[in-house]
Amino acid sequence: MTPSTAPWSRFTTDAPESAAAVEARFAAQPHHTLATLRGDGAPRTSGLEVRFLGGELWLGMMPGSLKALDLRRDPRFALQANPGEGTGMGGGDVRIAGRAVEVAGDGPEEEALRAAYVEEVEPPQPFHLFRAEVSEVVRTTVEDDLLVVRLWRPGEPLRTLRRA
What does pTM read for this prediction? Predict the structure, then answer.
């Protein structure tokens, strides 16, 4: 973990109501959009299912997928919640940025993490598993004809900005 990132549990501790709203937004749809960096530095967007388990944000992927290989090379990512049908954006527009840490070793701690994930999610085998270290969470909503942006970064209080 770098000083500019934190586990998901830090967000849930620092801003529990905001974290619950973000998790609910992701739970509203099964598929979301992950942005990674290709080897040449160009962005790559891919569909992805995410899980919030045990105070962590997990990214599971098919073996050898390009997004997994991107994250192995450069762990930076951006994740955007699926907006759902129509233009209502129920729950707002939600984006998370951070670094992905692969859980791939054969040590007892990593084996226990993977086993807990498999028990809960039952992913096709084999698979890549990444734990998100979060650098920023942004939730944008429209309230009373104002654009309301809630921004959290590790080590900073939740900020709320309102724009006409």
Answer: 0.93
Q: Rounded to an integer, what is the distance from CA 114 to the centroid of its chain? A: 18
Residue 84 gets the label, from left (phi > 0), alpha (psi -120 to 50) or beta, of: left
Of the candidates 158, 94, 103, the residue with the CA atom closest to the CA atom of residue 132:
103
Residue 105: CB atoms within 10 A of its CB come to 11
Pairing state of beta strands 76-80 and 56-61? unpaired
Say which range, 78-82, 92-96, 105-109, 115-119, has the weakest mean pLDDT: 105-109
Whether the Cβ atoms of residue 123 and residue 109 lie closer than 8 Å to each other: no
Beta strands in the chain (DSSP E): 6-7, 32-37, 43-48, 50-53, 56-61, 76-80, 93-102, 128-143, 146-152, 159-163
Per-residue pLDDT tens for 130-159?
999 999 999 999 999 999 999 999 999 999
- By the 8 A CB rule, do 73 and 39 touch? yes
Q: Which tokens belong to 113?
A: 């993490």
DSSP characters for 48-80? E-EEEETTEEEEEE-TT-HHHHHHHH--EEEEE
Task: Please report the pLDDT score of residue 81 as a whole number.
Answer: 95
